[in-house]
Amino acid sequence: IRDVAPSRGLGDLYKRQVHPWLSVKQRRYVVKLFSNLLALCNCTVEICNCNFCAAQRDHVAIFPAHHKVARFYAHARAEHAVKRTWCAAALQMAITAFSNVFVQGYINHFGADCMSGWTAYTKIDQLMFLPMQSLALSATTFVGQNLGAGDTPRAQQGVRRALGISLAVTAVLMVPVLVLAPQLTAFFNRKAEVVAYGTLLLRYISPFYLLCCINQIYSGALRGAGNSQVPMVIMLGSFVVFRQIYLYIVSHFITNTLLPLAMGYPAGWLVCSAATLLYYRRAALGRQRLVEDN
């Protein structure tokens, strides 16, 4: 008992002094951000291992006497590739998560009931995003493995199938969300005004989740090919720059009502999906590899 009490006291002191400027929703954004970064880091390491193993296999077969020296330099190149890919994706996630705080400021303008309805919507939103994000990470790994083995057509086929599965799963999940939107919102808050706000947001925004499948899968494929800078620029331009400009123009010059402001999320998804799709069609997956053959 004597050991537990000081630990609880330290925990309470930590919560009071370190986090007084963070709201509960902002803390959840931080936790979600670091969870995504850990998953992305693990996936990037696996991609580099696949490329590294393919390069090492070819090198050992041709130059067995120089295997140890080549292995040292290949590990250094793989480490540099991990840092380059991970830093670009981590920067994009961090800035996007930070920009969501400003979006929340527009929502807070409509009062406590709207804030509660928006919170209920975001909870269901996170569940809807899980399948497409998981498939995007799978596409990243699959593309890295096949490009490391030199099989570009199989990598492209895997991206197409991942996109198809993601669209199908999202469409299936979207049906109960649209039909049972009031019940799902009431699961978090039964107040009539909160349920009305949550239902409005779910039924108007949920159909646009199909756009997210496009930008998530193709961005994951480009990262698996070693091109993480372009998806970072596209997503920051769409989810941060475009969205903030959209919210400012709509709220100050058009109408300061909830639904047009909430449509800033689908508008950003549309811009990101169009830009990512255009770039993916013009880029070659096999053009760049995280670890080149010796």
Topology:
Blueprint: H1 4-18, H2 24-62, H3 67-108, H4 112-148, H5 152-179, H6 181-186, H7 192-205, H8 209-224, H9 229-254, H10 258-262, H11 264-282
Helix pairs in contact: 2-3, 2-4, 3-9, 4-5, 4-7, 4-8, 5-8, 8-11, 9-11
Brief descriptors of the model:
11 helices
Compose a concise summary of this entry.
The protein has 294 residues and is mainly alpha-helical. The chain has helices spanning 4-18, 24-62, 67-108, 112-148, 152-179, 181-186, 192-205, 209-224, 229-254, 258-262, 264-282.
Structural class: mainly alpha
Distance between the termini: 61 Å
Helix amount, in percent? Answer: over 70%
- Topology, number of strands: 0
Estimated share of beta-strand residues: under 5%
Mean pLDDT: 77
Query: Which residues sit in consecutive blocks of at least 5 with pLDDT less than 50?
Result: 1-21, 44-74
What is the overall number of helices?
Answer: 11
The biggest sheet amounts to: none
**Which radius of gyration do the C-alpha atoms yield?**
22 Å
Order of secondary-structure elements: HHHHHHHHHHH
* CA-based shape: globular
